Amino acid sequence: MNNNQIDTEVILKFLDFLKEGVIVVDENQNIEYMNAYAKDILKNDIKGIDPLGKHFSEVIKNNYLYSIISYKNKRDFKEEITINDDIFLIRMYHINNKKVLHFQDITLFEIYKQAKKDFVSNVSHELKTPIAVMKGIVETLEQEEDVQTIRKFLNMAKKRIDQMDSLINDLLILAKLESKEEKLNITKADLSRIVNSIFNDLEHLSKEKNIKLINDIPEGFLIDVDQKKFDILLKNLIENAIKYNKPEGSVTVSAERKDGEILINVTDTGIGIPKESQPLIFERFYRVDKSRSRNVGGTGLGLSIVKHIAEAHNGKVEVKSEPNVGSTFTVRIPERRDG
Ligand SMILES: Nc1ncnc2c1ncn2[C@@H]1O[C@H](COP(=O)(O)OP(=O)(O)O)[C@@H](O)[C@H]1O
Ligand SMILES: [Mg+2]
After folding, report:
1. N or C: which terminal CB in the chain sees fewer CB atoms within 10 Å?
2. DSSP 8-state class, residue 275
3. Nearest-CA residue for atom 19 of ligand 1
């Protein structure tokens, strides 16, 4: 073989490794070539028959693909289509007398695009509401002279500002967690102490409803975690356990070592979470009861932050809950961190 010649065997083998589908059809619409991925995409059509040499319409029962292939126009072509729930970008090229169909799986990309759109519209919505309220407050204040009333309105404005402040804070935490550069800074931490200090920070909240905070973790229970992040995780769980509790209820934090894992439980005696909502509460902005959540404050991002931090520690978070009885959130992390 001289230097200018291409080894077609290499090219063909390479095409079978490719995670994109390639089909070559001759001028009579007979299939001349199909790589492994194309066969996989169209496996429901092919079902054990050897497609090579057969007419396209005989093998592939997809009318739309057939219409692309039989298109008389010589222009190259690009279109999105769905095959068995996956989304593909299909391109057709005219090369010599042949037509080459190329399939690129863009399902994940489309899901990502949609998630990004939803996220942006959620954030805008969450910011618009407090801004609209504050605009109303400012307009009222312009006309108002009574000092008591002015104080009352300023107080309302302050609440909305706090709400936006928490939202931006949580968004920044999420953005940081999602950026790949962010590494964990693992050190040994005394879990009981962390919990006590969070209880202290949240005392004002628990006092409002006379909720008892119980730390069941023995002193000296050491865990390997990124302390700053684990603080955020536990604070979110404990804050929820207080916010969604009943008056005179209790919040208990406990921990155990089991089968190479550390399990940390935050248990409350609150309103609980309906079964159908349980898988959704870790999604950004999901709230079981939007109007109630607005009253108790919160951004709807807390549990997705919790999930992120647990996963960053190679762990996970689970929930068990019964409406009107209470909930237990359990964080599991491996006892000794990998690597
Ligand atoms: N301990 C709990 N008891 C009952 N419901 C809870 C509890 N924790 C979370 N939830 C529900 O899950 C939703 C999402 O929680 P989270 O992400 O922390 O957002 P939020 O800012 O609303 O607290 C809450 O709005 C609430 O409906
Ligand atoms: Mg919360």
Report:
1. C
2. G
3. 300
